[in-house]
Structure formats: structure tokens, C-alpha cells
């Protein structure tokens, strides 16, 4: 089976900083894959290379069999990308944003309108159909981004901190939708600091630290590697612990 996502020796250097080093991953169609790490571990840099926003210093990223650098249009037709801080055109309305999305992905007009209306209803956006984006809250904008990302039924959904700004009801809707897509064969590649989401939903989990892949596997495999029997949080903290972190203590001012 051809992997949905394949990273081969992927690396990115910024000056003397190796942000990502020698990253090799294969992710299957329909897999829900969580990509975790501390701040500045290289997660967002990896994602930007994965979607073609950054050019790798080394290696390559392949989506659905297409190299994102060599065949960017073919690769991008297969994916949706939800960044941690999405950009939307302030002077367009919700409906106009979704119609533009349908046009960009070459959807027939009738299918685009059908999907537009379905996701507006599903994500409780009806009252904002004709509201300018500039007038909407961050959480509402985030819902519009998800509606746009789901419209064309992508083969791969790549999300960076997906639940930021969402209230609990919408967050649950989005999580259920991710699972529904995965059950129908769509690959979910998700980076998040909310470890409970990864623990609840992911088939496999990767932990990156200092730009290198530190651990990869199911939750059970990460528990075995870390020597921890509890929640993912305990495994994560143990695996990413710096050598001197146990002895370092905050001292009270004198």
C-alpha cells in the first residue's frame, strides 16, 4: 500500500539552527497520526515543509505519491491544511470564502454549493453566512476554516493546533468529523499541545524534540519506551525530559 504521507530524510536548516533533522516517517491512508513535541521542537517547520510553504534543506515530503516540491499542484489537490493561525480575506463573507474554496479545488458549482451549505449547517455558521470575516471572532473564523478544509473531501488533512478558539461543543464536532474522515480513508496529520486529544484519537503518535524524531508508536508502545504506565502526558514528559531538569529547582527570592 502506498503511504498517504512519506517523509524521507527531511531536514530544514535556518542558518546554524537545524530546525528539523533526518526525519523519516510513513503514514498510512486512513491513519490518525499525532505529531507532538515541546515548543520549538520543529513541529510547525515540518508541517510547513509538508504542505509546500517551506523548501526543505534536505530530503523530501511525498503526499499521495506526489513530491510536494516536484508536483505541488497534484499534491495540494489531495490535502487540506489548517494552520494554527489561519488567514482569511477580511472583506469576503463566509459564503464567499467557501465558494472561493470550491473554485480553487475545481469543484463543480452544484457540488460546491451543496458542500458549502452542508458544512455551514453542520458547524453552526448559518447566522454568519453573509457576515464579513473582519467582523467575526477568532473561534468563528476557525469554524469557517474547518468548513473550507472539509468541503472537497480531502485525502489528507493536516492540522496544527486545531482546537484553539473552539468552544467545547464545536471542538467535539470537529473531533468527530476527523474520526469520520479517517474511517472513510482520509489521513489525519495533527500537531497539538493538547495531549488528551492525541491520547483519545490517534492511532499512532510521534514525538519530536530538538528537530529529531524521539519516539514513534502507539500509546502502548510509548508507555513501554518511557517506562510509564499512565496517561500520554506522563510518557511525553519522561521522554522529553532534559538531562538536568530533575535537579533544577525554582528558588525563592531572598
Short description:
With about 250 residues, this protein is α/β, with parallel strands linked by helices. The chain has helices at about 45-50, 70-75, 95-105, 110-120, 140-150, 170-185, 195-200, 220-225, 230-240, and strands at about 5-15, 15-25, 30-35, 60-65, 65, 80, 155-160, 185-190, 205-210, 210-215. α8 crosses α9 (about 230-240).
Number of structural units classed as domains: 2
Strand order of the largest sheet: 6-7-8-3-9-10
User: What's the Cα radius of gyration?
Assistant: 19 Å
Number of helices: 9
Task: Characterize the largest beta sheet: strand count, sense, and whether it forms a barrel.
Answer: 6 strands, mixed
- The CATH class of the largest domain, by name, is Alpha Beta
Order of helices and strands: EEEHEEHEHHHEHEHEEHH
* Range of helix content: 25-40%
- Total beta strand runs: 10
Examine the coordinates and then state which fold CATH places here, giving the name of the CATH topology of the largest domain.
Rossmann fold
Shape: globular
- Beta-strand content: 15-25%
Uncertain runs are none
pLDDT averaged over residues: 92
The CATH homologous superfamily of the largest domain corresponds to P-loop containing nucleotide triphosphate hydrolases
Describe the fold and architecture.
By secondary structure, this protein is an alpha/beta fold. It has two domains: 1-78 and 154-212, P-loop containing nucleotide triphosphate hydrolases (Rossmann fold, 3-Layer(aba) Sandwich), CATH 3.40.50; 86-153, no CATH class. 35% of the residues lie in helices and 24% in strands. Helix 3 packs across helix 4, helix 3 (94-104) packs parallel to helix 5 (138-150) and helix 8 (219-226) crosses helix 9. The chain starts with a strand and ends in a 15-residue tail after the last helix.
Amino acid at each position: 500500500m502506498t503511504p498517504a504521507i512519506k517523509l524521507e530524510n527531511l531536514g530544514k536548516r535556518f542558518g546554524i539552527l537545524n530546525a528539523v533533522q533526518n526525519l523519516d516517517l510513513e503514514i498510512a491512508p486512513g491513519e490518525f497520526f499525532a505529531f507532538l513535541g515541546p515548543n520549538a521542537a520543529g513541529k510547525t517547520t515540518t508541517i510547513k515543509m509538508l504542505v509546500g510553504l517551506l523548501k526543505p534543506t534536505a530530503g523530501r515530503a511525498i503526499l499521495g505519491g506526489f513530491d510536494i516540491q516536484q508536483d505541488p499542484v497534484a499534491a495540494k489537490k489531495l490535502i487540506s491544511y489548517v494552520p494554527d493561525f489561519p488567514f482569511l480575506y477580511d472583506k469576503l463573507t463566509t459564503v464567499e470564502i467557501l465558494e472561493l474554496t470550491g473554485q480553487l479545488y475545481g469543484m463543480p458549482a452544484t457540488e460546491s454549493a451543496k458542500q458549502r451549505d452542508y458544512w455551514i449547517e453542520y458547524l453552526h455558521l448559518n447566522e454568519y453566512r453573509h457576515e464579513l470575516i473582519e467582523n467575526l471572532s477568532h473561534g468563528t473564523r476557525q469554524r469557517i476554516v474547518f468548513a473550507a478544509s472539509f468541503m472537497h473531501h480531502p485525502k489528507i488533512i493536516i492540522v496544527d493546533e486545531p482546537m484553539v478558539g473552539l468552544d467545547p461543543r464545536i471542538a467535539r464536532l470537529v473531533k468527530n468529523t476527523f474520526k469520520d474522515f479517517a474511517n472513510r480513508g482520509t489521513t489525519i496529520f495533527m500537531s497539538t499541545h493538547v495531549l488528551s486529544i492525541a491520547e483519545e484519537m490517534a492511532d499512532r503518535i510521534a514525538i519530536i524534540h530538538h528537530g529529531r524524531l524521539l519516539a514513534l508508536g502507539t500509546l502502548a508502545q510509548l508507555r513501554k519506551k518511557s517506562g510509564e504506565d499512565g496517561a500520554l502526558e506522563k510518557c511525553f514528559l519522561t521522554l522529553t525530559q532534559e538531562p538536568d531538569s530533575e535537579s533544577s529547582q525554582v528558588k525563592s527570592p531572598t
